[in-house]
Amino acid sequence: MNAVDTPLKHESWLAGNGVTHAGEVHEQANGFSVVNCEHCGFKHVLPLPTTEELKHVYAHEYYTQEKPLYIERYLEDKSWWEDVYNERYDKLEAFLGDKRRKILDVGSGPGLFLLKGQERGWTVKGIEPSQRAAAHSRESLGLDVIEAFLDEQLAPSLGLFDAINLGEVLEHLPDPAAMLKLVHGLLDKDGMLCVIVPNDFNPIQRALRDHLGQAPWWVAPPHHLNYFDAQSLASLLERCGFRLAHREVTFPIDLFLMMGKNYIGNDTLGRECHAMRKAFESGMRKSGEQELMNKMYQGFLELGLGRELVFIAQKVSA
């Protein structure tokens, strides 16, 4: 059995709301333990930071210290992101029909997803805690973006939406179930939710860590608190009032590490690997082999591979 199948120990922690989080420890980093939580049904760190601690990190530090080049690199990749976002809107529109075109993007970042929706005729609104990213969205792109965290105080002022996007949000929150229940209330009848999270502790990552000496780079508290796989994410969505409608994964870029391209901490090599991934996907689209690529990625999903999980789910009314 490898290290991930042989947990270090069992650990428990009592949260301020009286909930005990406990489970087998699967990794430790930066003073945190990652447990497979018996209460939550997915892996997360202990202890969990408070909401106030995280608000400071994401409002003032994330895009300046943790990812200082993120916005610039994101804009460099604009044409590739447009293809990705067009496909995502295609799926949402197929589920919603012709007349439902109002979307909220929670954690809207630099704003290209919202911009693409606006170009396609959607009414768009974003919520983004980072001062830098929110300012770019408003001042450079002219988008309707609120600089804030989505919480119970803000939600009642927003109205209802046909679709909500949660792109790489849930892994950062101390209580992802609370966020899913909050957005459930912001969706109109039969509205659609798109959730994107990293696919962590996947087979390639485990092989690299347990047999090839690679440190577990994906374990990154306090910025990443929760660690999902396809099963745990699907179960969480169902518990929070959603019916799963579509599942896919993104390119398993961890494969480059397996092939000797150790891009961890190497920005130049990381960009080269990302460029190869973009070239592959663009080539498949341009050659008319989009459907073949989709089938390949579905195969990755069935094997537990793929760097991110992209799940679309429909609101189930009580």
Describe the structure in brief.
The protein is of the alpha/beta class and 318 residues long. It is 40% helix and 23% strand.
Which helices and strands occur, and which strands form pairs?
Blueprint: E1 10-14, E2 20-29, E3 32-37, E4 43-46, H1 51-66, H2 70-76, H3 78-96, E5 102-106, H4 112-119, E6 123-127, H5 131-140, E7 145-146, E8 161-167, H6 176-186, E9 187-198, H7 203-211, E10 226-227, H8 230-239, E11 242-249, H9 255-258, H10 267-286, H11 290-302, E12 308-315
Parallel strand pairs: 5-6, 5-8, 6-7, 8-9
Antiparallel strand pairs: 1-2, 2-3, 3-4, 4-10, 9-12, 11-12
3D architecture notes:
The strands form 2 sheets. The chain has a 7-stranded mixed sheet with strand order 7-6-5-8-9-12-11, with helices on both faces. The protein starts with 9 loop residues before the first strand and ends with a strand. The chain is built from 11 helices and 12 strands. It is of the alpha/beta class. It is globular, with a radius of gyration of 19 Å. Helix 3 crosses helix 4.
